[in-house]
Amino acid sequence: MDPEGFTDVIKKIRPHTDHIYFHLMGEPFLNKNLGTFLDISAENDLKVNITTNGTLIQRSKTSCSQKALRQVNISLHSFEANDTTNSLDSYVSNIADFINEANEKSEVICAIRLWNMDTAELKASNGLNDDILSMLEEKLSLDIRLSEALQQKNNIKLRDRVYINMAEKFEWPELDRDIIDENIFCYALRDQLGILVDGTVVPCCLIVKENTAWKYIRNIT
């Protein structure tokens, strides 16, 4: 999606929301137009929430000072779950540097995610959790033991506008996947919908199959 197409999307959705989320099926910091998108969002008084795997976050330090940016969710569980050439130390260091700078120079909220806890149905990749938590303690200058604190509760405020939370492994849903739980609630169509980079409108993160897509937003007046 180019800036012109993004502007068209923003004009159409602005009457219906104050927040947008750069999240569906991609890494936001890969997009060369991210800074422009944030500027367009600011011009339209929209707050932007970004979810990233953190691998490219060292490129994004200018973004944390942009007016539209409200929150950055950083999925640390992605390191172990995916192949990467980065070392764990450099990966966590880059993320900690971003958090420290954002915390010092902006009002951006930083939410660290470790969503890789095992469930009865899903085995997650979480063997590096203790190492990651120890590195965060050092690089964020924390005075708590995260591994112990997270055994008491899953969500912890580390400092002003910086949080960490642990949760069970999340799998992107598909209609043809085996049912693992029949009691699931989704905010799709009630509180949210998604727009892919090609303009396809989808109800939620259940977007992989064509039968969940509606139409292109450029055809919506």
From TrEMBL:
Q: Which SUPFAM superfamilies match?
A: Radical SAM enzymes
InterPro entries assigned to the protein according to its UniProt record, in alphabetical order: Aldolase_TIM (IPR013785), rSAM_sf (IPR058240)
Q: Does the keyword Metal-binding apply?
A: yes
Q: Which UniProt keywords apply?
A: 4Fe-4S, Iron, Iron-sulfur, Metal-binding
- Which residue ranges does UniProt annotate as crossing the membrane? none
Q: Name one GO molecular function term.
A: 4 iron, 4 sulfur cluster binding
Q: Which cofactor does it need?
A: [4Fe-4S] cluster
Name of protein = Radical SAM protein
* Species for this entry: Peribacillus frigoritolerans
Question: In the record, what lineage is assigned to the organism producing the protein?
Answer: Bacteria, Bacillati, Bacillota, Bacilli, Bacillales
